[in-house]
């Protein structure tokens, strides 16, 4: 609708790149076929009238009407030959076959055209957690009691601090999150639920406490109030009622937790004021070093509300009457920081190679993450998204929005166009940032062709971006139902390498259609030419309407099956995307079509005009009355020669980039050395 800020419905009804190109091609072929068919009928009718009525001086007879009907049938034959009826079938077969096979590559395709669109993708906006990383998180560093611990087991841990850490983690996390020790020696712990919470629960186990015992002491139904985590809060809070005291535990992004704190537990658990200078020092000496190691930094804090007159410690807050729990700002400010935990989420070992492949294929990878800028930059460098010495930028959400919005706070496309071409990492991103980035890239006029954008998402708030993108990838494991519903493809393993497989399959579909077109258009050019020349030279088409329907519907169906079911190869990733404006029929394909058409026409014209004079064929003379339109052995030989040459041409049609070896399963780079340079 016109009033909607996110017109997602309009996006999905638009045609894909291949559909647009095929529609244009079908219209062009239709025009050419109609002109040739009309010219054929006119030539036949004019020639018959001149011969019958002007040269032979014959009177007009009722029988002449049958000749005119036959001429119209010949014209229809030419039109039938010109229009590739097997093309829609070939497209459907190629897409359906690819979709079925993509399931084996962990891509569950929900919309058929997404498969083909992915082959033209120029930008991939990917999440970090679970897609580029393993989503198996472990706590590896900590800052507790004024000590920066580079190993998970903190030294000289104060008993009160330990108790607060354990209770704060166990109570202030989803009770569905769970981690258990591996049954095999040296094996990894099994993690169920939120992986960040599992890492913190793992820290509780490392501290020698079973979190289930703590949860048994504080069952979920006994929790007074829970403020669940969301992308706006960047934290989670849980309120416990301990007699007439209320204790609030908080955990979340370390910058947010520390910014809300006015006290901190120092050496030996001593209470220390936490000023802006302390915050700056902590950011510089703790958070940034952890983030530079690629760690996610999680802050833990607490706050006690005590009845008026019962305050014993400086960090306690007195209350009288009812506390307004709906006033989140009041509840979460003035807390006491307990610790900062550094959580490691290793990059998937196969991801750097996969990113290098798509970059080599002319696709830009951008990382959009909720982590802080230093963690994001470290992971992006490990993956190969950011490279030393290259003029790319990484921005936090606040700076990104400051740069792209005008004085009224609206997104300015011109300002965004100055940012996105160099942007590779967007940190501390909100779901709205992802939508703005995707929409901005799609609407941009900076590139020669419109960018084709793929985006990954797992949360409910990612739905608008998933719908807006040309191809939306939802996470099959970590994704919500809303995200899956908004997506085009679901990654059943949440892995970036599966996106690379989708690119290969998309390009394979495009090439399969191009192969079929090369085969089909050769058939059409030869058949239209022989029918037109035959009609003009001998007043009859050597190829009949039924024969051509047989070729188009039977032979072309099998051809589309053969050409549309070839498996994709790595060589599909050595070229850049075709783009929205590049013709479906390349210059190399035109040469192939013209070359084989000329060869076939030479053979067929020889058989048409001199075939009856060849002794070894032993053909009877051609029917003396060309207007009888009866079947002859001569025309049958021509049709058989045409079919056999077309069958052999199907093998040639397997290659569309000028490769020399038509029998190879996959073209090697040596076979088309100019291809990469040409597409760069």
TrEMBL record:
One of its GO terms (cellular component) is endomembrane system. It is an enzyme of class 7 (translocase). Its EC number is 7.2.2.8. Keywords: ATP-binding, Copper, Copper transport, Ion transport, Magnesium, Membrane, Metal-binding, Nucleotide-binding, Translocase, Transmembrane, Transmembrane helix, Transport. PROSITE patterns: ATPASE_E1_E2. Residues 541-669 form the Cation-transporting P-type ATPase C-terminal domain. It holds the Pfam family Cation_ATPase. Its main location: membrane. It is a multi-pass membrane protein. It is found in: Endomembrane system. The chain crosses the membrane at residues 25-50, 71-97, 517-538, 593-612, 632-651. One of its GO terms (biological process) is regulation of cytosolic calcium ion concentration. GO terms for molecular function: ATP binding; ATP hydrolysis activity; metal ion binding; P-type calcium transporter activity; P-type monovalent copper transporter activity. NCBIfam families: ATPase-IIB_Ca, ATPase_P-type. This is P-type Cu(+) transporter. The lineage of its organism: Eukaryota, Metazoa, Ecdysozoa, Nematoda, Chromadorea.
């Amino acid at each position: 609708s016109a009033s909607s800020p996110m017109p997602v419905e309009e996006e999905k009804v638009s045609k894909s790149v291949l559909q647009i190109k095929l529609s244009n091609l079908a219209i062009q072929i239709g025009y050419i076929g109609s002109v040739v068919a009309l010219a054929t009928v006119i030539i036949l009718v004019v020639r018959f009238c001149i011969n019958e009525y002007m040269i032979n001086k014959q009177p007009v007879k009722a029988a002449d009407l049958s000749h005119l009907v036959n001429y119209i049938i010949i014209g229809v034959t030419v039109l039938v030959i010109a229009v590739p009826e097997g093309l829609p079938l070939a497209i459907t077969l190629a897409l359906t076959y690819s979709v079925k096979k993509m399931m084996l590559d962990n891509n569950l395709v929900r919309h058929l055209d997404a498969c083909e669109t992915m082959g033209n993708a120029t930008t991939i906006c990917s999440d970090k957690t679970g897609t580029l990383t393993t989503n198996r998180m472990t706590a590896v560093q900590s800052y507790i009691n004024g000590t920066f611990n580079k190993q998970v087991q903190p030294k000289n841990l104060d008993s009160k601090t330990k108790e607060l850490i354990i209770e704060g983690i166990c109570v202030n996390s989803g009770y569905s999150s769970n981690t258990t020790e591996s049954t095999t020696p040296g094996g990894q712990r099994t993690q169920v639920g939120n992986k960040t919470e599992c890492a913190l629960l793992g820290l509780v186990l490392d501290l020698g406490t079973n979190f289930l015992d703590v949860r048994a002491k504080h069952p979920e139904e006994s929790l007074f109030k829970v403020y669940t985590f969301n992308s706006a809060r960047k934290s989670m809070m849980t309120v416990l009622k301990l007699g007439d005291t209320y204790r609030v535990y908080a955990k979340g992004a370390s910058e947010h937790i520390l910014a809300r704190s006015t006290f901190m537990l120092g050496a030996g658990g001593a209470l220390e004021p936490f000023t802006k200078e302390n915050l700056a020092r902590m950011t510089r000496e703790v958070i940034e070093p952890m983030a530079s190691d690629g760690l996610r930094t999680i802050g833990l804090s607490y706050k006690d509300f005590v009845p008026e007159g019962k305050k014993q410690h400086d960090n306690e807050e007195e209350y009288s009457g009812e506390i307004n729990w709906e006033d989140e700002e009041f509840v979460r400010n003035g807390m006491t920081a307990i610790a900062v935990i550094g959580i490691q989420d290793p990059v998937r070992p196969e991801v750097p190679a996969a990113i290098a492949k798509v970059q080599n294929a002319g696709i830009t990878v951008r990382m959009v993450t909720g982590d802080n800028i230093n963690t994001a930059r470290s992971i992006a460098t490990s993956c190969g998204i950011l490279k030393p010495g290259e003029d790319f930028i990484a921005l936090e959400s606040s700076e990104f929005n400051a740069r792209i919005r005008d004085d009224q706070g609206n997104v300015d496309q011109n300002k965004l166009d100055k940012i996105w071409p160099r942007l590779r990492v967007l940190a501390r991103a909100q779901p709205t940032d992802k939508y703005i980035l995707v929409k901005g890239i799609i609407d941009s006029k900076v590139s020669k062709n419109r960018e084709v954008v793929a985006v990954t998402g797992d949360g409910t708030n990612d739905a608008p971006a998933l719908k807006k993108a040309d191809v939306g990838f939802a996470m099959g494991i970590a994704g919500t139902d809303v995200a899956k519903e908004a997506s085009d493809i679901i990654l059943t393993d949440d892995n970036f390498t599966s996106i690379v497989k989708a690119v290969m399959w998309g390009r394979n579909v495009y090439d399969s259609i191009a192969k079929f077109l090369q085969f089909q258009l050769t058939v059409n050019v030869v058949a239209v030419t022989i029918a037109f020349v035959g009609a003009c030279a001998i007043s009859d088409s050597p190829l009949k309407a039924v024969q051509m329907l047989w070729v188009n519907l039977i032979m072309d169906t099998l051809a589309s099956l053969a050409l549309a079911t070839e498996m994709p190869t790595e060589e599909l990733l050595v070229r850049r995307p075709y783009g929205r404006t590049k013709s479906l029929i390349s210059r190399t394909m035109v040469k192939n079509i013209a070359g084989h058409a000329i060869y076939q026409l030479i053979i067929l014209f020889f058989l048409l005009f001199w075939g009856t004079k060849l002794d070894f064929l032993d053909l009877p003379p051609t029917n003396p009355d060309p207007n009888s339109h009866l079947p002859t052995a001569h025309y049958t030989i021509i049709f058989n020669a045409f079919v056999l040459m077309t069958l052999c041409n199907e093998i040639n049609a397997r290659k569309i980039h000028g490769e020399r070896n038509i029998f190879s399963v996959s073209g090697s780079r040596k076979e088309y050395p100019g291809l990469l340079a040409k597409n760069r």
